[in-house]
Design goal:
The chain is α/β, with parallel strands linked by helices. Helices cover 52% and strands 15% of the residues. The protein has 11 helices and 7 strands. Helix 1 packs parallel to helix 2, helix 1 crosses helix 9 (209-221) and helix 4 (101-121) runs parallel beside helix 6. It is globular and about 55 Å long. The protein binds NADP nicotinamide-adenine-dinucleotide phosphate. The site of NADP nicotinamide-adenine-dinucleotide phosphate has 27 residues, from helix 1 and strand 2. NADP nicotinamide-adenine-dinucleotide phosphate is lined by residues 9, 11-15, 32-34, 37, 60-62, 87-91, 110, 137, 139, 182, 184-185, 187-188, 191.
Length: 256
Protein backbone atom coordinates (compact mmCIF):
# COMPACT_ATOMS: atom_id res chain seq x y z
CA UNK A 1 0.00 0.00 0.00
CA UNK A 2 1.40 3.41 -1.01
CA UNK A 3 1.20 6.41 1.31
CA UNK A 4 0.13 9.82 -0.01
CA UNK A 5 -0.28 13.44 1.03
CA UNK A 6 -3.70 14.74 0.04
CA UNK A 7 -3.81 18.44 -0.88
CA UNK A 8 -7.15 20.07 -1.59
CA UNK A 9 -7.08 23.02 -3.98
CA UNK A 10 -3.77 21.82 -5.41
CA UNK A 11 -4.23 23.30 -8.87
CA UNK A 12 -3.04 26.83 -8.25
CA UNK A 13 -1.98 29.44 -5.72
CA UNK A 14 -0.89 28.27 -2.30
CA UNK A 15 -2.04 24.66 -2.90
CA UNK A 16 0.13 24.35 -5.99
CA UNK A 17 3.13 25.80 -4.10
CA UNK A 18 2.55 23.26 -1.30
CA UNK A 19 2.29 20.44 -3.86
CA UNK A 20 5.62 21.40 -5.46
CA UNK A 21 7.35 21.58 -2.06
CA UNK A 22 5.96 18.16 -1.09
CA UNK A 23 7.06 16.75 -4.45
CA UNK A 24 10.59 18.05 -3.79
CA UNK A 25 10.50 15.93 -0.60
CA UNK A 26 9.56 12.89 -2.76
CA UNK A 27 6.08 12.58 -1.25
CA UNK A 28 3.37 10.87 -3.31
CA UNK A 29 0.43 13.21 -3.80
CA UNK A 30 -3.34 13.20 -4.16
CA UNK A 31 -4.45 16.53 -5.60
CA UNK A 32 -8.03 17.79 -5.77
CA UNK A 33 -9.48 20.85 -7.53
CA UNK A 34 -12.43 21.79 -9.69
CA UNK A 35 -12.63 20.44 -13.28
CA UNK A 36 -10.51 22.10 -16.00
CA UNK A 37 -8.16 23.75 -13.52
CA UNK A 38 -4.91 22.43 -15.01
CA UNK A 39 -4.65 19.74 -12.34
CA UNK A 40 -3.98 16.93 -14.83
CA UNK A 41 -1.10 18.85 -16.43
CA UNK A 42 0.34 19.73 -13.02
CA UNK A 43 0.13 16.08 -11.94
CA UNK A 44 1.98 14.94 -15.06
CA UNK A 45 4.65 17.58 -14.52
CA UNK A 46 5.19 16.51 -10.90
CA UNK A 47 5.28 12.79 -11.76
CA UNK A 48 7.83 13.31 -14.51
CA UNK A 49 10.11 15.75 -12.71
CA UNK A 50 10.08 14.39 -9.16
CA UNK A 51 9.63 10.68 -9.75
CA UNK A 52 6.60 10.43 -7.45
CA UNK A 53 3.11 9.05 -7.84
CA UNK A 54 0.36 11.65 -8.23
CA UNK A 55 -3.38 10.91 -8.28
CA UNK A 56 -5.72 13.71 -9.19
CA UNK A 57 -9.42 14.29 -8.76
CA UNK A 58 -11.20 17.09 -10.56
CA UNK A 59 -14.22 17.39 -8.32
CA UNK A 60 -16.31 19.96 -6.53
CA UNK A 61 -15.42 19.65 -2.86
CA UNK A 62 -18.47 21.61 -1.75
CA UNK A 63 -20.42 18.39 -2.34
CA UNK A 64 -20.25 15.83 0.46
CA UNK A 65 -20.71 12.92 -1.96
CA UNK A 66 -17.53 13.93 -3.84
CA UNK A 67 -15.45 13.84 -0.64
CA UNK A 68 -16.83 10.36 0.09
CA UNK A 69 -16.21 9.19 -3.45
CA UNK A 70 -12.55 10.37 -3.32
CA UNK A 71 -12.14 8.42 -0.08
CA UNK A 72 -13.72 5.25 -1.57
CA UNK A 73 -11.69 5.49 -4.75
CA UNK A 74 -8.42 5.81 -2.80
CA UNK A 75 -9.36 2.73 -0.76
CA UNK A 76 -10.07 0.80 -3.97
CA UNK A 77 -6.62 1.81 -5.27
CA UNK A 78 -4.87 0.72 -2.08
CA UNK A 79 -3.79 4.28 -1.39
CA UNK A 80 -3.47 5.46 2.19
CA UNK A 81 -3.27 9.04 3.44
CA UNK A 82 -0.45 10.01 5.81
CA UNK A 83 -0.88 13.77 5.60
CA UNK A 84 -3.97 15.80 4.75
CA UNK A 85 -3.60 19.47 3.76
CA UNK A 86 -6.96 21.23 3.81
CA UNK A 87 -6.03 24.15 1.59
CA UNK A 88 -9.00 24.61 -0.80
CA UNK A 89 -10.81 27.74 0.12
CA UNK A 90 -13.15 30.30 -1.34
CA UNK A 91 -12.04 33.83 -0.68
CA UNK A 92 -14.32 36.85 -0.66
CA UNK A 93 -14.10 40.58 -0.36
CA UNK A 94 -17.47 42.30 -0.36
CA UNK A 95 -20.16 43.87 1.73
CA UNK A 96 -22.46 41.33 3.35
CA UNK A 97 -25.55 43.12 2.07
CA UNK A 98 -24.25 42.83 -1.51
CA UNK A 99 -23.11 39.22 -1.29
CA UNK A 100 -24.99 36.45 -3.01
CA UNK A 101 -26.25 33.98 -0.42
CA UNK A 102 -25.50 31.01 -2.70
CA UNK A 103 -21.87 32.14 -2.78
CA UNK A 104 -21.40 32.28 0.96
CA UNK A 105 -23.32 29.04 1.59
CA UNK A 106 -20.91 27.27 -0.79
CA UNK A 107 -18.02 29.13 0.81
CA UNK A 108 -19.03 27.76 4.22
CA UNK A 109 -19.18 24.23 2.74
CA UNK A 110 -15.73 24.44 1.10
CA UNK A 111 -13.99 26.30 3.95
CA UNK A 112 -15.64 24.58 6.92
CA UNK A 113 -17.61 21.40 6.14
CA UNK A 114 -15.13 19.88 3.67
CA UNK A 115 -11.98 20.06 5.86
CA UNK A 116 -14.00 18.67 8.76
CA UNK A 117 -15.40 15.78 6.73
CA UNK A 118 -12.05 14.90 5.12
CA UNK A 119 -10.34 14.90 8.55
CA UNK A 120 -12.99 12.47 9.77
CA UNK A 121 -12.94 10.21 6.69
CA UNK A 122 -9.16 9.68 6.80
CA UNK A 123 -8.79 9.28 10.58
CA UNK A 124 -8.05 5.54 10.30
CA UNK A 125 -5.47 6.25 7.61
CA UNK A 126 -3.68 8.72 9.90
CA UNK A 127 -3.73 6.18 12.72
CA UNK A 128 -2.22 3.52 10.46
CA UNK A 129 0.56 5.82 9.21
CA UNK A 130 1.92 7.61 12.29
CA UNK A 131 3.67 9.96 12.47
CA UNK A 132 0.95 11.56 10.38
CA UNK A 133 -1.01 14.77 10.40
CA UNK A 134 -3.50 17.35 9.24
CA UNK A 135 -2.56 20.86 8.14
CA UNK A 136 -5.48 23.28 7.99
CA UNK A 137 -5.10 26.51 6.04
CA UNK A 138 -6.70 29.39 7.89
CA UNK A 139 -5.83 33.08 7.49
CA UNK A 140 -4.78 36.17 9.44
CA UNK A 141 -8.37 37.26 8.73
CA UNK A 142 -9.47 34.84 11.46
CA UNK A 143 -8.01 37.12 14.17
CA UNK A 144 -9.28 40.51 13.07
CA UNK A 145 -12.79 41.90 12.60
CA UNK A 146 -12.43 42.84 8.96
CA UNK A 147 -15.29 44.48 7.13
CA UNK A 148 -15.87 42.84 3.72
CA UNK A 149 -14.46 39.57 5.07
CA UNK A 150 -17.24 38.72 7.54
CA UNK A 151 -18.14 35.21 6.29
CA UNK A 152 -14.61 34.39 5.11
CA UNK A 153 -13.10 35.44 8.48
CA UNK A 154 -15.75 33.41 10.29
CA UNK A 155 -14.97 30.25 8.31
CA UNK A 156 -11.25 30.67 9.00
CA UNK A 157 -11.87 31.25 12.73
CA UNK A 158 -13.77 27.94 12.78
CA UNK A 159 -10.65 26.19 11.45
CA UNK A 160 -8.55 27.69 14.26
CA UNK A 161 -10.84 26.40 16.95
CA UNK A 162 -11.39 23.02 15.27
CA UNK A 163 -7.65 22.45 14.77
CA UNK A 164 -6.59 23.33 18.33
CA UNK A 165 -9.24 21.08 19.88
CA UNK A 166 -8.64 18.18 17.52
CA UNK A 167 -4.87 18.46 18.07
CA UNK A 168 -5.38 17.86 21.80
CA UNK A 169 -7.70 14.91 21.15
CA UNK A 170 -5.59 12.96 18.69
CA UNK A 171 -2.02 13.75 19.81
CA UNK A 172 -2.15 10.48 21.79
CA UNK A 173 -2.17 8.50 18.51
CA UNK A 174 0.90 10.33 17.14
CA UNK A 175 -1.25 12.41 14.76
CA UNK A 176 -0.31 16.07 14.61
CA UNK A 177 -2.74 18.86 13.73
CA UNK A 178 -1.35 22.23 12.65
CA UNK A 179 -2.94 25.42 11.50
CA UNK A 180 -1.32 28.01 9.25
CA UNK A 181 -2.56 31.59 9.15
CA UNK A 182 -1.01 33.36 6.16
CA UNK A 183 -1.50 37.05 5.61
CA UNK A 184 -2.12 38.25 2.06
CA UNK A 185 -0.45 36.18 -0.66
CA UNK A 186 0.01 37.04 -4.31
CA UNK A 187 -1.79 33.96 -5.63
CA UNK A 188 -4.24 35.05 -8.34
CA UNK A 189 -3.84 38.07 -10.65
CA UNK A 190 -6.99 39.55 -9.10
CA UNK A 191 -5.43 39.31 -5.63
CA UNK A 192 -2.11 40.75 -6.86
CA UNK A 193 -4.00 43.84 -8.09
CA UNK A 194 -6.09 44.00 -4.94
CA UNK A 195 -2.98 43.67 -2.75
CA UNK A 196 -1.29 46.58 -4.55
CA UNK A 197 -4.19 48.82 -3.55
CA UNK A 198 -3.97 47.94 0.15
CA UNK A 199 -2.90 50.42 2.81
CA UNK A 200 0.86 50.68 3.46
CA UNK A 201 0.83 48.57 6.60
CA UNK A 202 -1.06 45.69 4.96
CA UNK A 203 1.13 45.79 1.85
CA UNK A 204 4.19 45.06 4.01
CA UNK A 205 2.72 41.71 4.98
CA UNK A 206 2.09 40.37 1.45
CA UNK A 207 4.13 37.27 0.65
CA UNK A 208 4.56 34.94 -2.30
CA UNK A 209 2.88 31.54 -1.94
CA UNK A 210 6.19 29.74 -2.63
CA UNK A 211 7.94 31.25 0.39
CA UNK A 212 4.86 30.70 2.60
CA UNK A 213 4.71 27.05 1.50
CA UNK A 214 8.37 26.42 2.45
CA UNK A 215 8.02 27.95 5.93
CA UNK A 216 4.67 26.26 6.53
CA UNK A 217 5.80 22.74 5.66
CA UNK A 218 9.01 23.06 7.70
CA UNK A 219 6.95 23.91 10.80
CA UNK A 220 4.21 21.39 9.99
CA UNK A 221 6.66 18.50 9.78
CA UNK A 222 8.22 19.68 13.06
CA UNK A 223 4.79 19.35 14.66
CA UNK A 224 4.23 23.06 15.35
CA UNK A 225 0.62 23.78 16.31
CA UNK A 226 0.30 27.32 15.13
CA UNK A 227 2.11 28.70 12.09
CA UNK A 228 2.26 32.42 11.30
CA UNK A 229 4.42 32.95 8.21
CA UNK A 230 6.41 36.19 7.92
CA UNK A 231 7.77 38.68 10.44
CA UNK A 232 5.21 41.38 9.61
CA UNK A 233 2.35 38.98 10.29
CA UNK A 234 3.97 38.01 13.60
CA UNK A 235 4.14 41.73 14.41
CA UNK A 236 0.41 42.06 13.58
CA UNK A 237 -0.31 39.26 16.05
CA UNK A 238 1.68 41.04 18.74
CA UNK A 239 -0.10 44.32 18.00
CA UNK A 240 -3.43 42.53 18.18
CA UNK A 241 -2.56 41.44 21.71
CA UNK A 242 -1.26 44.74 23.05
CA UNK A 243 -3.06 47.55 21.23
CA UNK A 244 -6.23 49.09 22.66
CA UNK A 245 -9.46 48.25 20.84
CA UNK A 246 -10.05 51.74 19.36
CA UNK A 247 -6.62 51.74 17.69
CA UNK A 248 -7.12 48.24 16.28
CA UNK A 249 -10.46 49.36 14.93
CA UNK A 250 -8.83 52.29 13.14
CA UNK A 251 -6.03 50.14 11.71
CA UNK A 252 -8.33 47.41 10.40
CA UNK A 253 -10.63 50.04 8.88
CA UNK A 254 -7.66 51.67 7.11
CA UNK A 255 -6.34 48.27 6.04
CA UNK A 256 -9.30 47.81 3.71
N1 LIG B 1 -4.35 34.36 -1.15
C1 LIG B 1 -4.37 34.91 0.05
O1 LIG B 1 -4.13 36.11 0.20
C2 LIG B 1 -4.67 34.05 1.25
C3 LIG B 1 -4.40 34.57 2.52
C4 LIG B 1 -4.65 33.80 3.63
C5 LIG B 1 -5.16 32.53 3.50
N2 LIG B 1 -5.43 32.04 2.25
C6 LIG B 1 -5.99 30.70 2.15
O2 LIG B 1 -5.12 29.89 1.38
C7 LIG B 1 -5.88 28.92 0.67
C8 LIG B 1 -5.53 28.97 -0.79
O3 LIG B 1 -5.76 30.27 -1.25
P1 LIG B 1 -5.30 30.76 -2.70
O4 LIG B 1 -5.14 32.22 -2.65
O5 LIG B 1 -4.20 29.90 -3.20
O6 LIG B 1 -6.64 30.47 -3.51
P2 LIG B 1 -6.85 30.16 -5.05
O7 LIG B 1 -5.65 30.58 -5.83
O8 LIG B 1 -8.19 30.73 -5.37
O9 LIG B 1 -6.91 28.58 -5.03
C9 LIG B 1 -7.95 27.95 -4.38
C10 LIG B 1 -7.84 26.49 -4.66
O10 LIG B 1 -8.99 25.84 -4.08
C11 LIG B 1 -9.66 25.13 -5.08
N3 LIG B 1 -11.10 25.15 -4.88
C12 LIG B 1 -11.89 26.21 -4.61
N4 LIG B 1 -13.17 25.81 -4.52
C13 LIG B 1 -13.17 24.47 -4.73
C14 LIG B 1 -14.19 23.48 -4.77
N5 LIG B 1 -15.47 23.78 -4.59
N6 LIG B 1 -13.83 22.21 -5.03
C15 LIG B 1 -12.54 21.88 -5.26
N7 LIG B 1 -11.53 22.76 -5.22
C16 LIG B 1 -11.85 24.04 -4.96
C17 LIG B 1 -9.33 25.84 -6.39
O11 LIG B 1 -9.52 24.96 -7.46
P3 LIG B 1 -9.72 25.54 -8.95
O12 LIG B 1 -8.35 25.89 -9.43
O13 LIG B 1 -10.27 24.38 -9.66
O14 LIG B 1 -10.65 26.70 -8.86
C18 LIG B 1 -7.86 26.18 -6.15
O15 LIG B 1 -7.06 25.06 -6.40
C19 LIG B 1 -7.35 29.23 0.95
O16 LIG B 1 -7.84 28.39 1.96
C20 LIG B 1 -7.32 30.67 1.42
O17 LIG B 1 -8.41 30.96 2.27
C21 LIG B 1 -5.18 32.77 1.13
Amino acid sequence: MKTYTLITGGSMGFGKALAIECAKMSMNLVLVALPNSGLVELSQFLKKNFNIDVLCYEMDLSKEENCISIYSDLKKNDATIKYLINNAGMLSNGLFEDMNSDYFLTQIKVNVATPTLLSKLFMDDFKANVPSGILNVSSMASFFDLPKKQVYGGTKAYLLSFSSSLRKEIAKYGISVSIVCPGGMNTTSRLCLQNRRLGWISRQSIMNPEEVAKVTLRHFFNGKAFIIPGNVNKLFMLMNRILPQFLKHRLTRNAI
